[in-house]
Design goal:
By secondary structure, this protein is an alpha/beta fold. The protein has helices at about 5-15, 65, 85-90, 120-130, 130-135, 145-150, 165, 170-175, 200-205, 210, and strands at about 25, 40, 70-75, 80, 95-100, 105-115, 160, 170, 190.
Length: about 220
Amino acid sequence: YDAECVNRLFAALRTNSTVPFQPVCVTDDPAGIDPDIRTIPLWNQCRELGGCYNRLYVFSGDMREIIGPRFLCLDLDTVVVGNIDHLLTRPEPFVYYRWEAPKEPARFNCGLFMMDAGARSEVWDDFIADPDCAIHSASHLEGSDQAWCNHRLDISREAHFSRDGDGIYDFRVDFLKGRLRVPPPGASLVMFPGPRDPRDSGLIKRFPFIRGGAIQE
């Protein structure tokens, strides 16, 4: 994903929110990113492990100085389709996106979560203490960082975002395999987990909402 993707996502977030926020992008290539977006150099922690393990560093208490006291972490392949004020104003110290699909267990999708910096620092601390052991212990679960988060956290006890409560939809489950063709009233975000890319022309032709999202009235 390039600078245009970054700029479009943050523009959509701003258009669909009345809550002030500072856009931040963690990247190894800041060229072309809107100057209103604060860029942070991508850290080296766990990059040698591959996958998305280096994202686990966001759970470290260090983020208080690196990003700020509270932040929402969002994948670039998210499509904003409605107002997000209700997401940004959640008060809990940690809120994750609860992915759900028919006949599958619910899980933490790392494409979206919000926290006070360091609120779940054990996710990082326990992983970095012995990465090989941590990876092995979560190997029965899907993903890299996502597998570890689902293994380490008791998601049944954590506050979460959801489809029915917050208008967050999964493109594969709700659109490709489901009956939706356009986001329903009250929708806020459409997540694109896995290999699906919202820039794909074939997907845009089938689901034109992907290109424009929604503009707040």
